[in-house]
Write a structure and sequence with these properties.
322 residues; 14% strand; alpha/beta; globular; TIM Barrel
């Protein structure tokens, strides 16, 4: 009997998306000291990638209502990272149909960014492919997050993967947007993605949400099935129920290149205070939306109102809409 959990895969890479996904909790209105602390922690911890935020369209998102990390302008990023004289690669997410990518994503030689992560729903695949090619032509490493995969039919998944096969995307990410998937489903999806990209050199990634408190377990399951690109956030901070916690992931990976102590120091110095002002995690309303494979917007709306503990009303309303 072997014990693979005491070894590690050197080809596996970790991406921190705290400021991007966590920014959905506070409209990306992070203080500079928090963003800088997360950046420095990623560097000190040996994390491979840090996602600073979105390349959001100002035509859709009013700058006055959102912080700098909704747009990731060069001056704002360099205010935090300078020229990024480290091995940490910097990324930004570009949502299909929410990014003015031709204008707002500069050529790589003019940007501190290394990676553009194109995020798309299945019906937006043609736009996403154009975005992937545009970013690759500009000199970036490009990846693709296929969102809300839990509500797709097998034929839709297969067609999307076939369409992405010949693009310059280096990684395609399994995204459990609603935190509804179980380990067996995650394993099958990773297997499906890997089979679709066999012979291309593409990697498969995982981005798990924690609605049913399975983000860490599902990330482990994806790794067992050969996933080599994994997302996590500090303290699991992210939209709604949040994501796979970085402090758990680094401890599991056993790779001596990763150091967990700087993460714990970050949590101690910054995230205790953030939790006093902001709310995320696997609360009961997010459990409900996860079990029903629903977008968490209903839970987010309920938790922001006065009747935030009326779990039965939320459950009955969502069930009635199925």
């Amino acid at each position: 009997m072997s014990a693979p959990w005491i070894t590690f895969r050197p080809e596996l890479k970790v991406l921190d998306c705290t400021i991007r996904d966590g920014g959905l909790v506070n409209s990306h209105l992070f203080d500079d000291d928090v963003v800088r602390a997360v950046y420095q922690t990623c560097v000190e911890s040996g994390i491979d990638y840090m996602e600073l935020g979105y390349k959001g369209s100002r035509k859709l998102f009013a700058p006055g209502k959102f912080g700098d990390w909704k747009f990731c302008d060069e001056d704002d990023m360099r205010r935090i990272v300078g020229d990024n004289d480290s091995s940490l690669k910097l990324a930004a997410m570009a949502d299909a149909e929410k990014t003015d990518y031709h204008e707002d994503i500069l050529p790589k030689e003019k940007s501190v960014l290394d990676v553009i992560r194109v995020a798309t729903y299945v019906h937006q695949i043609p736009v996403a492919i154009d975005m992937i090619r545009d970013a690759a032509d500009k000199g970036y490493e490009v990846t693709c997050n296929l969102m809300a995969v839990s509500v797709l039919q097998d034929a839709e998944i297969d067609q999307a993967l076939e369409s992405l096969r010949d693009t310059p995307a280096s990684t395609v990410v399994v995204v459990d947007s609603f935190g509804s998937l179980y380990g067996e489903q995650i394993g099958r999806l990773v297997d499906r993605y890997r089979a679709a990209f066999e012979g291309t050199g593409k990697e498969v990634g995982i981005h798990a949400h924690n609605n049913q408190q399975l983000a860490f377990a599902n990330t482990i399951e994806s790794i067992i099935h050969g996933c080599n690109r994994v997302d996590a956030t500090m303290a699991g901070m992210g939209r709604g129920a949040g994501n796979c916690p970085m402090e758990l992931l680094l401890g599991f990976l056993k790779n001596p290149s990763y150091r967990i102590r700087p993460v714990l120091q970050l949590l101690q110095e910054h995230f205790v205070g953030l939790r006093e002002k902001l709310e995320w995690g696997a609360l009961v309303p997010y459990n409900i939306t996860g079990q029903l494979n629903q977008h968490p917007r209903g839970a987010i709306e309920m938790l922001s109102g006065e009747d935030r503990n009326n779990f039965v009303e939320l459950y009955d309303r969502l069930v009635a809409d199925l």
